[in-house]
UniProtKB/TrEMBL annotation:
A Pfam family hit: WD40
GO cellular component terms given for this protein: large ribosomal subunit; nucleus
Protein name (Swiss-Prot/TrEMBL): Meiotic recombination protein rec14
Stored PROSITE patterns: WD_REPEATS_1, WD_REPEATS_2, WD_REPEATS_REGION
Cell inner membrane listed as a keyword: no
UniProt keyword Endoplasmic reticulum present: no
PANTHER family cross-referenced by the UniProt entry: SUPERKILLER COMPLEX PROTEIN 8, WD REPEAT-CONTAINING PROTEIN 61
GO BP terms: translation
Length: 445
């Protein structure tokens, strides 16, 4: 069988490759050279056999140039970062330099005006366990061996004196006489030693007056301590549940109150005495115990006056009101119980829930000079001011997240400490933060 070559003809690409022609419509169209063949046996059948194929492609550079331009246009723009937006928002609103600075009159370090010097206030290496105010100063005790006295007559509350090595194992309680002249204070160390300090009027410095060794405590380790308003009597508690009263002038024990079976009440036999206070008229002595018992003794007769109920958990603080008509007691129950000292009755409770939804342990309480307000410090780090007449908490200050071990009202001043501060009572708080924080009445500093 032979094939006969026929005449050559050109077929345009538009009919054969429509997509290619559309793609390169602006360029020279592609062409396909074909050869037509016919078979002798089938003359009507014509076959188109490709002879050559030619594409009219544009130059490679022009193709890449178009593709690259489309890719660049399709790429999204870079987003503005949060930091860049913040910089634009804060343009001209940066933090201003602190210019209200002064030098601490005690240590000479730079500090902010009207603020407690951080160098002086942080002199305690461990948490502060107790505070005791005088008319001109506040005394602080901690787990370190030193006692510190801060001057409260100046707005910067500078460190006035440090009693280094006062207690080798640290000090857990310190007390002064409320409404007293402020010439004597007592401290108790973790070694159960009691030291009585006296202010030297000539030098203005505090000096050790005398020491009561642990061997004379007669009834266990010494814990809480209290001074009478005339600074002549000292009362302290022991782990055996006893309360001893000493005459500071004669340096001898004059009373011993036993809360065990010999006191006429067997409900608190030998329970740890965790708190003590002397009434300002000197007639009553109150104690709080680990088993929740609260006892009031008559100093004239030396006998138990009241055995008070209302708190079933350890009592960490007791305090007589300035008029000696009320007694406040508080502790692990998270409630401040108030008792009438005329009839020996439980009259009211003060309580507030913590942020965790339960009553936090109350570690310290104190009355102001008028007896209208109570101050409390608790385990949740909050200082609360209570209006006794309204039976409500009127102010709450979040001192820190750590435990507050002591809160105290400062004696009312007759003049303003600094411009804008005004007259009125101040109070202070201290605890695990190792700092002493001072507040004004009704509002925090």
């Amino acid at each position: 069988m032979s094939l006969a070559a026929q005449s050559m003809r050109i077929a345009p690409t538009g009919s054969i490759l429509p997509r290619i022609s559309a793609l390169f419509s602006t360029q020279r169209p592609a062409s396909l050279m074909v050869r037509s063949l016919s078979l002798p046996f089938f003359p009507s059948l014509v076959l188109a056999v490709p002879a050559s194929f030619h594409l009219g492609l544009p130059p490679l550079g022009s193709i890449l140039e178009g593709i690259w331009e489309s890719i660049l246009k399709a790429v999204p723009k870079k987003k503005t970062s949060h930091m860049k937006k913040r910089h634009r928002q804060m343009a001209g609103k940066a933090l201003k330099d602190v210019t209200s600075l002064c030098k601490c009159p005690s240590c000479g370090q730079t500090k902010r005006m009207h603020y407690l010097c951080p160098h002086c206030a942080s002199t305690h290496k461990t948490g502060i366990f107790s505070l005791a105010p005088t008319p001109t100063s506040v005394i602080s005790a901690s787990g370190s061996s030193a006692l510190h006295i801060h001057n409260t007559t100046e707005p910067s509350f500078p460190l006035q004196q440090s009693l280094e090595g006062a207690h080798k194992l640290g000090c857990h309680h310190v007390c002064t006489a409320r409404d007293g002249p402020g010439n004597v204070f007592a401290s108790v160390g973790f070694g159960s030693e009691i030291k009585v300090w006296r202010n030297n009027k000539e030098s203005g410095k505090w000096e050790l007056w005398w020491e009561l060794p642990p061997s004379k405590s007669n009834g266990g380790d010494v814990w809480a301590v209290a001074l009478s308003s005339d600074e002549n009597y000292l009362a302290f508690t022991t782990s055996g549940g006893k309360i001893h009263v000493w005459d500071l002038t004669a340096r001898e024990r004059i009373r011993t109150y036993d809360t065990g079976s010999g006191s006429g009440s067997g409900t608190a036999a030998g329970s740890f005495a965790m708190a003590v206070d002397l009434s300002r008229d000197g007639k009553l002595t109150a104690s709080g115990h680990e088993n929740g018992g609260v006892y009031v003794f008559n100093n004239d007769t030396g006998k138990l006056a009241y055995s008070l109920s209302g708190l079933a958990k350890p009592v960490r603080a007791v305090a007589f009101s300035p008029g000696c008509k009320r007694l406040a007691a508080a502790g692990n129950a998270g409630v401040i119980a108030l008792y009438d000292m005329v009839r020996g009755e439980h009259v009211q409770n003060l309580s507030a829930l913590s942020t965790a939804g339960f009553n936090s342990w109350i570690t310290s309480i104190d009355w102001n000079d008028t007896g209208d307000y109570l101050l409390s410090g608790s385990l949740d780090g909050r200082v609360r001011v209570w209006d006794v007449n309204r039976e409500a908490c009127v102010a709450t200050h979040s001192e820190s997240d750590g435990v507050l071990w002591s809160v105290r009202w400062l004696p009312k001043t007759e003049r303003a400490l600094a411009p804008g501060m005004g007259k009125g009572e101040l109070f202070c708080a201290a605890g695990e933060s190792k700092n002493i924080t001072f507040y004004r009445e009704a509002t925090g500093i």
